[in-house]
Write a structure and sequence with these properties.
Helix 1 packs parallel to helix 2 and helix 2 runs parallel beside helix 3. The longest helix is centred in the middle third of the chain and has 14 residues. The chain has a single domain, classed as Alpha-Beta Barrel (TIM Barrel), CATH 3.20.20.70. The chain contains 11 helices and 12 strands. It is α/β, with parallel strands linked by helices and 332 residues long. Strand 11 and strand 12 form a beta hairpin. It has a 12-stranded mixed beta sheet with strand order 7-8-9-6-5-4-3-2-1-10-11-12. The structure holds S-adenosylmethionine and iron/sulfur cluster. The site of iron/sulfur cluster has 12 residues, from loops.
C-alpha cells in the first residue's frame, strides 16, 4: 500500500479523492441538471461494474483515500450493490461515500451501509410535493422522504442533504430546509447552480448566491462558523444546540480551485481533471486493451495529473454553458 501520495498535479496539488459516475441515467430529470429530451449513452459505451471496480482499485493503489460513487443516479444502476461490496472494505480506502437523489434508498440503505458506505449525500431541493415534482420533472417527494428515514435507520456515520436553490422556484425554502435538517438531526449543504450543459432556462435568471442564502439563514439562526476544514470546497457553519451543520458549496461566488484534491470519472471511463473544463483522458481503451494488466492504466492516471487545469472559469452571464456536458455525464 502507498503511504506517500503519487498523484500530484502540475500545481503541486495532491489528488486523493475520486468521484466515479456509474451511470449517466437517472429516474429524475432535474431542470438544472438535465434537458427535457436527454440523450443517454448507448449501454455498450458504459463501463461494466467490473471495470468500475478495477478503476477504483487502481486509483486506491495510487494513494486515493476517498471514493464517491455518483451519476446520474447511481442507485438505479442494476447490481450497483455488487460494486459497493467489492470496494467497500478495500485496504487503503478510508471513505466510500455515495451521492443519490434518495429515490432508491428505502430499499438499499441497509445494504449500502453493510457494504461499507460511510456517508451518504441526498439531494433534496423542496419539501413541497408539487414543487419537488416541478424541479425533478418526474420525482416523488414521499419516496425520497422514506429514503431519508431508511438512511437514518441504517446508521451511516453522516447523512447530508444537498440543496440547490433557484430564484422564483424554491429560493423561499432555505429556512424550511435547514429546519427540516435540524429536525432530522442531519447536515445540509447549499450548492450554487453551475452552468453545465444546455438546460431550458437561462442560468443567470435562476441563480441564487450562497452569500444571499447565508444572510437569510443568519436572520433566523445564530450560525457559528466552523474552523475545521473537511478538505473539500464546502464551508461549514454550526447551528448551536443542534446536530446540524450548514455547508455552502459556492463554485461561482468563491472559487475553491487552489485546494482542489479531486478528479472525476464519467460512466464511459473518461477521466475529467476538472468539472468545469474539457481536459480529459480516456481510460476505457486501456481497461479493454489490457484486461489483465493494470500497469498501463496506472501510468496513464499518473501522467494525466499534468493535464489538471488550474481551475474552472464559470460565468453565468454567458449565453453558452461553461462546458457542454451535463453534470449527470461527468458525475456530480
Ligand atoms: N443523482 C444524484 C443526486 O442527484 O444526488 C447524483 C448525481 S447529481 C449530478 C449530484 C449533485 O449535482 C446533486 O446534488 C445535484 O443537485 C447537483 N447538480 C446537478 N446539476 C447541477 C448544476 N448545474 N449546478 C450545480 N449542481 C448541480
Ligand atoms: Fe438525476 Fe441527480 Fe441530475 Fe437530478 S441532479 S437529474 S437526480 S442526476
Amino acid at each position: 500500500m502507498n503511504s506517500s501520495p503519487v498523484l500530484i498535479d502540475g500545481f503541486g496539488r495532491k489528488v486523493d479523492y475520486i468521484r466515479l459516475s456509474i451511470t449517466d441515467r437517472c429516474d429524475f430529470r432535474c431542470v438544472y441538471c438535465m434537458s427535457e429530451d436527454m440523450q443517454f449513452l448507448p449501454r455498450e459505451e458504459v463501463l461494466s461494474l467490473e471495470e468500475c471496480s478495477r478503476l477504483v482499485k487502481a486509483f486506491v493503489s495510487l494513494g486515493v483515500k476517498k471514493v464517491r460513487i455518483t451519476g446520474g443516479e447511481p442507485l438505479v444502476r442494476k447490481n450497483a450493490l455488487w460494486l459497493f461490496n467489492e470496494i467497500g472494505h478495500l485496504p487503503g480506502l478510508n471513505e466510500l461515500v455515495v451521492t443519490t437523489n434518495g429515490s432508491q434508498l428505502e430499499h438499499q440503505a441497509h445494504d449500502l451501509r453493510r457494504a461499507g458506505v460511510r456517508r451518504v449525500n441526498i439531494s433534496l431541493d423542496s419539501l413541497d410535493e408539487r414543487r419537488f415534482r416541478q424541479i425533478t420533472r418526474v420525482g416523488e417527494l414521499d419516496k425520497v422522504l422514506r429514503g431519508i428515514a431508511a438512511a437514518k435507520q441504517a446508521g451511516f456515520d453522516n447523512i447530508k442533504l444537498n440543496t440547490l436553490l433557484m430564484r422564483g422556484i424554491n429560493d423561499d425554502e432555505a429556512i424550511a430546509m435547514v429546519a427540516f435538517a435540524i429536525g432530522q438531526g442531519i447536515d445540509i449543504s447549499f450548492i450554487e447552480e453551475m452552468p453545465l450543459g444546455q438546460v431550458s432556462h437561462a442560468r443567470d435568471s435562476t441563480y441564487v448566491s450562497n452569500e444571499e442564502t447565508l444572510k437569510l439563514l443568519r436572520s433566523r439562526y445564530d450560525l457559528i462558523a466552523s474552523v475545521e476544514s473537511t478538505g473539500g470546497p464546502a464551508r461549514y457553519w454550526y447551528v448551536p444546540n443542534t446536530n446540524t451543520r450548514v455547508g455552502f458549496i459556492s463554485p461561482n461566488s468563491h472559487n475553491f480551485c487552489e485546494s482542489c484534491n479531486r478528479v472525476r470519472i464519467s460512466s464511459k471511463g473518461e477521466l475529467y481533471l476538472c468539472l468545469g473544463q474539457e481536459n480529459k483522458v480516456d481510460l476505457a481503451p486501456l481497461l479493454r486493451q489490457f484486461p489483465h494488466d493494470d500497469e498501463p492504466l496506472k501510468q496513464a492516471i499518473v501522467s494525466s495529473m499534468q493535464a489538471k487545469p488550474k481551475g474552472h472559469d464559470f460565468n453565468l452571464k454567458r449565453a453558452e454553458p461553461a462546458v457542454i456536458r451535463f453534470m449527470s455525464h461527468t458525475g456530480g
